[in-house]
Amino acid sequence: MRLLTHTVTPQEAGLPVRTLLRRQLRISGSFLAKLKWRPGAITLNGIPVIVSTRTEAGDVLAADVSDLPGENPHIRPVAYPLDILWEDEDLLLLNKPAGIAIHPSALTEETVTVAGAVCHYLRTDSFHCVNRLDRGTTGVMAVAKTGYIHRLCMESLHTDSFLREYRGICLGTPQPSSGAIDLPISRDPGSLLRRTVDPMGLPARTLYETLLPGELSLLQLLPQTGRTHQLRLHLSAVGHPLAGDWLYGTEAPTLIPRPALHSYRLRLLHPVTRRWLDVTAPLPEDMRRLLPPDCDPA
User: Fold this and answer.
1) How many Å is the Cα radius of gyration of the chain?
2) Strand-pair partners of 16
3) What is the band of 108 on the pLDDT scale with cuts at 50, 70, 90?
């Protein structure tokens, strides 16, 4: 159970429960419409109340924002080890390995998914991914433990309260060595998977900086938007696809069997505690092998 509480201040005395749930606990109108029908989900001093109840100073308002069972019946829990970088009662920050999809795919039969592994670990059937990573992408990803936390995280995604930093290894050295790529993206009408640069597509912006130039260059990548395949497509579009990118560049299994892309750092403002979290995941071995031995990938 995830129980949120708030102690009514003298300034808030007289306000209805509904107002405090929306204002102080940041419960959305749509969620509140469901929550108020759950028996015992909203209490005042431990006693179930209706949302129109008036409060007094010192009252303790509580709301159970847990997920209800059966919200994701298609997810099959599976015992698979998770590399947990940080965890509390609201968030799970993972270091995702390569080769594992986030969700079950309609195109392939997935035995192991991040969703299934998380559901097994949390003993739940609910899965709320905040920053989705491609199957071949490694590194830091955030999972919310409830739909309530997921909504708060998604409100901060692509803002200064949720910063994502990637490492990529591309072919050649971009010129200039740092800058911004502003190219709109849409679906490729001839493919189920590919995206394409399209003047009529959705805006997409990527900041980049070359950390180590060469035939294979190490880049810092900062997506300012979150389009599918954005980093891969943007680098390909400027003539420097990621090493191993079979979809937007050239497949190179002897070099690296996947696109050389890693979610290196996640810095976010915790949606409940309002404290900053700053978590990094080290560059995986298959990408480190592409760099000089004395290179510092950070």
Assistant:
1) 22
2) 54
3) low
